[in-house]
Amino acid sequence: MEKRLFLRGNHALAIGAIKAGCRFYFGYPITPQNDIPEFFSKQMVKVEGCFIQAESEVASINMILGASAAGARAMTSSSSPGLSLMQEGLSYLAGSELPAVVVNINRSGPGLGGISASQGDYFQATRGGGHGDYRTLVLAPSSVQEMHDLTLLAFDLADKYRNPVIILADAVLGQIQETMVDRPYQPLELPPKDWILAGASGRDPRLIKSLYLKEGEMERHNWKLFEKYQRMKREDVRHENYLEEEAELIIVSFGTAARVAKSAIRLARAEGLKVGLFRPITLFPFPEKALFDLSQRVKRFLTIEMNTGQMVEDVKLSVARDADVHFYGHAPGSPPAPEELLNALKKVY
Amino acid sequence: MKQVFKRPRSLKDVSFHFCPGCHHGTIHRLVAEAIDYYDLRERTIGVAGVGCSVFVYEYFDIDVAEAPHGRAPAVATGLKRALPDRIVFTYQGDGDLASIGMSEIVHTANRGENLTVIFVNNTVYGMTGGQMAPTTLLGQPTTTSPYGRDFLQNGYPIRMAEMIATLEGTSFCARVALNTPANLMKAKKTVRRAFEMQMNNMGFSFVELLASCPTNWGMNPLKANERVEKELIPYFPLGTFKERKGTDHQ
């Protein structure tokens, strides 16, 4: 029988990272993700790994750049203001085509904001965030189990594409405790790391860089990255459907909001309302084709987010032209209650 | 006939692009000679800063990672922690290391990371066209201090080697110049010593090299060399500020 653990999301994520072979963690304290660096500070010693409490998030992300250039699986975690500081590094990681896993336990903003759960960093995560024409893969867990499972996947996808992967969770998912199946790590088949720096012994020197000055080089590099993002869209889009058969209204929601939406849908079903859920698990690449296909049959959508409206733009871009897309936003504070979402969906049902 | 002077193995067979009289080429050579001297080429990884330093990868025949502006010590930390048996060095200018990268350099030194920092101080932002650096001397005109650096407006030039030497994590810290043959020979030994410290797992080693930038100083190479002697060395004294004899901090 599979081993079951009762633990909080942030610990599930950290256990997943060690299982996936991550031996380098660099991070800086910020609430509500401190139990991740604290966990690694204790555990990395036991697996002969490396934990550094960096002087800033700027340093953390660049330490990852170094460890990743050396071929190691490396990660950091932070919360929204920290992610802002990492955007420079993320841009360089993407430009230099280096794998990395970066966790954002999304808190509220802008500015110092607050430590409560938010989905306000959707744009920052899915649009690149830093300077230049690049994307990061974005995984959005919705349970403690997924905090673990998607972390295993994140390291594989980072290596598969030589690209940073962001795990976009929030304060609720980080702190909530629930039961999780302690699944073994079954790695994807990955390309050899024939690009790492280790000293030019018996081969030509290698470079890890993002500077392209010669005529035409930068353009070629940008189109090469574009092709990579197109491949992500073909091969690594994930979503979950819930009670979507014969639904007349589909709620589109991710992460913590999707959890509450499920409860609201159960309440709605008990009242005879045919409501289903479409939950993107990859926020980039966004499951646009699956959502379009669904919109051939269902014509009414309600996007629910813990912000004032971000993912709803992707939903509108994805669905068929004759589908109606509504939005209900629960701006940060405490997460929405199922009854609140039930009222919201009744208004558009 | 015996050949007494040739290109170091660790440099590629390409011409430097640096301006006439610039010391970067000389510093590249000193670093390459040190790498060759200890036969480290095949296990050395360089980390390039941003500015004229970024082209390290064009000239060194070794593995190189390019870091964001100022972040080379953090990148080098990640590399060295992942590959503790390799030799890792950063190559950074004064804007990169002493301005935008002040936090990274101080904390990398303070952690006693076992790596080497080559710090080129020419008192000016070179690549971007001669703007004021944190090391620009008082009274020195630059494109962003056209009336000369004024301490009421811009504060004082920072003495990095002295500052780094105060940190417990630092094992070796020195400042050298390249303006005379005698200084050049001292610089060569000092750079070699810095790599030796790393090879012996002694921890953080730091060499500041006073360099000329004739183009942005608006001088010919000879005048620029004279300026190093007359203006830079009096404010940035040469010498070894710290040298640990044993690995007492490890």
Short key terms for the protein model shown above:
heterodimer, A: 349 residues, Rossmann fold, 2 domains, eight-stranded mixed sheet, globular, B: 250 residues, alpha/beta, seven-stranded mixed sheet, two-stranded antiparallel sheet, 10 helices, 9 strands
Explain what this protein looks like in three dimensions.
Chain A has 349 residues and is an alpha/beta fold. Chain A has helices at residues 9-19, 35-43, 57-69, 80-96, 122-126, 144-161, 171-175, 217-235, 255-270, 288-295, 311-318, 338-348; strands at 4-8, 24-27, 50-53, 74-78, 100-108, 114-117, 137-139, 164-170, 177-181, 207-208, 239-242, 249-252, 275-280, 282-284, 300-305, 324-329. In chain A, helix 3 (57-69) runs parallel beside helix 4 and helix 9 (255-270) packs across helix 12. Chain B has one domain: Rossmann fold (3-Layer(aba) Sandwich), CATH 3.40.50.970. In chain B, the strands form 2 sheets. Chain B has a 7-stranded mixed β-sheet, sandwiched between helices. In chain B, strands 5-6 form a two-stranded antiparallel sheet. Chain B has helices spanning 24-37, 56-59, 72-82, 94-100, 102-110, 151-154, 160-165, 181-199, 214-217, 221-235, and strands spanning 44-48, 63-66, 87-93, 116-121, 124-125, 131-132, 170-177, 204-210, 239-243. The N and C termini of chain B lie far apart (48 Å). In chain B, strand 5 (124-125) and strand 6 form a beta hairpin. Strand 10 of chain A pairs parallel with strand 2 of chain B, so a sheet runs across the interface.
Quick overview:
Chain A has helices spanning 9-19, 35-43, 57-69, 80-96, 122-126, 144-161, 171-175, 217-235, 255-270, 288-295, 311-318, 338-348, and strands at 4-8, 24-27, 50-53, 74-78, 100-108, 114-117, 137-139, 164-170, 177-181, 207-208, 239-242, 249-252, 275-280, 282-284, 300-305, 324-329. Chain A is an alpha/beta fold and 349 residues long. The longest helix of chain A has 19 residues, at 217-235.
The whole-angstrom Rg of chain B is: 17 Å
Largest sheet report of chain B: 7 strands, mixed
- How many DSSP-defined strands of chain B? 9
Q: What oligomeric assembly is this protein in?
A: heterodimer
User: Any idea what the radius of gyration of chain A is?
Assistant: 20 Å
Mean pLDDT of chain B: 96
Global mean pLDDT of chain A:
97
Count of helical regions of chain B:
10
Spans where pLDDT lies below 50 across 5 or more residues of chain B: none
Q: CATH H level of the largest domain in chain A: which superfamily?
A: Thiamin diphosphate (ThDP)-binding fold, Pyr/PP domains
Which ranges of chain A are low-confidence, i.e. pLDDT below 50, for 5 or more consecutive residues?
none
Could you describe the largest sheet of chain A, including whether it forms a barrel?
Answer: 8 strands, mixed
